[in-house]
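Supplementary notes for students who missed Thursday's class. We covered one full example, reproduced here. Read the sequence, then the structure, then the short commentary at the end.
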Amino acid sequence: MIFNETSDDKHRTGFSLIKYGLPLILIAIIGVFAFRSYQSSMVTGHQTSATSIMRDLYNREVEFRMINRRYATLEELSADGLIDKELASGVKDGYRFEIDAKGDSFEIHATPLIYGGTKSTGTMSFYMNQANVFTVADKGGGKASPNDTPVKE
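Structure (token representation):
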């Protein structure tokens, strides 16, 4: 007996773009949105941490001044055991921290290590001084100033 291929048989075999391609495309689209959401969450987390670290550095500066009658650098705060060694290096949780201490005044700056792009650690820069002026701004990765938007408590 000779087997005759019918048109019905042709539709049952082979690759179907709709059957296999469409689910793959949907999974890829969902993956892109999930990654963007994850990246946004990471940036928000780094910025929240930077805000907390700025407030902690302010308190450590006040504590140091009560004992030493002047403000301190990151290294001096670390030497006195007021901050950990990671923060003393100037880098923590995706941000770079700097303290410019001059006798009766200080300025603390926090800037994102990587600004913008898929590997961004933050978009906001922070500033704080001895008068408890605490500001935030998107400076493109540059330093914030006392004239920027005040951080709400």
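Commentary. The chain is about 45% helix and 20% strand. The helical segments are 7-12, 17-68, 74-79, 85-88. If anything here is unclear, bring it to office hours.
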